[in-house]
Amino acid sequence: SPQGKVRVQRILWRAKFHEALDADPDKNFILKHESWEDPQYLLKDTVSLFGVSKEGEEISFVKVQDGENVYSSRHGPFLYISQYNLATHIITISADDFIKFAETITHPSSKIIFVANTGRCGSTLLAQMFENLSGLKVLSEPHSILTLLNLFNRGKLSEERYKTLLYSTVKTLVTFEDETIHTIVIKPVFKCTPQIQLFNKMFPGSRMIFLYRNIKDNVDSFMRVMISFSRYAYLFTDGEEMLAYWVNDLPLPLSTTAYRWARDQKVLSQLSLPAAIAFNWCSTVVCVKTYIEEGMDILHMDYKELVASPAKSWSLISTFSSLPQIEGKPLEAYNKDSQAGAFLSRGVLSNARIKKKEQALIESEIAKILTAFNLLRSVEEELDSVKGVADREND
């Protein structure tokens, strides 16, 4: 391959077992080589960063048809699925050349808002509220940053290499040719919560929002997702592999000696599926709590508040994010199913139910896990209790 060039290949065929799964250029597509291009080709508005493959050695982008907006929620709620569905071409570049390319991009002047979340908590709805404002781009679940975290967790990337690739990836994700874009919102997967501390350091002035839901409703909602998913999952995976998703890559705070017990494989291997989901919820909350305690400014909001008081919630969020106080447009997002057209839509999940006898057992497991994590108050109380701790200690 010509040194420093990106490879453009046309997609002849694509397939994957389930839309929720990631797609790999080598495994899920039949491609035909078209051209070698200068890396600046990657900055076209029809091109977007797609994924990280070959154990972190290759970065892939997708190209869509002219005039197509791959970021629009009308195609579906998640960027990685819309990219797969709409792509006409796959573009690849080696990780080393990608880092060099990212160095040529100026540090973003746009405002960046990160929406951390527990999952199943209205974060997709919030992303679509942002989307309804002009001058904003919303990136809902770009899986490239998740893949980098997973590779780092497995020791495939050194800490220095991981941070360099992560910075290069986010910098590229938030760079657009369109000069009317003034704000970019990134809603990562909940597993990415540990990364918000790095994002905060890499992009000073970025805003951090944390959306959560009470643990019982969160576990119940995720269990219904898993019940629905397992109807098809037997074709390409098993229960053990599905449980592995939950017990691996826990979103615990990085660079801390706390919660070592929660990383103990003996503890994790004994978890049931609902207990493992509860473990992730607790990990996410203590991660955000730790970062607030260390001085990060994070606006936290309960799903119930978001749903019950749309205008008040938007006023808080837009003020915190330094966005104009426009009421009508953002609130139009409430008029549709935020997950419409995807595997998490209301229609798909409506028939998935947990049996009553299982419910009591789940609640018992949740209570034990909350005690183990010392999360015995509401999330609001837990997070408010550490706000300003770093400031008081500095004083």
What is the strand and helix layout of this fold?
Layout: E1 6-14, E2 29-37, E3 47-53, E4 58-63, H1 79-86, E5 89-94, H2 95-103, E6 111-117, H3 123-131, E7 136-140, H4 143-153, H5 159-173, E8 183-187, H6 196-202, E9 207-212, H7 215-233, H8 239-247, H9 265-269, H10 273-293, E10 298-302, H11 303-308, H12 310-320, H13 328-331, H14 346-349, H15 356-372, H16 379-384, H17 389-394
Parallel strand pairs: 6-8, 6-9, 7-8, 9-10
Antiparallel strand pairs: 1-2, 1-5, 3-4, 4-5
Helix proportion: 40-55%
Order of helices and strands: EEEEHEHEHEHHEHEHHHHEHHHHHHH
Strands, count: 10
In the sheet with the most strands, the strands line up as 2-1-5-4-3
N-to-C CA distance:
57 Å
Could you list the spans in which at least 5 consecutive residues all have pLDDT below 50?
Answer: none
SS strand fraction: 15-25%
**What would you call the structural class?**
alpha/beta
| Count of individual helical segments | 17
Q: Rounded to an integer, what's the Rg over CA atoms?
A: 21 Å
What about the largest sheet?
Answer: 5 strands, antiparallel
Overall morphology: globular
Q: What integer is the average pLDDT?
A: 91
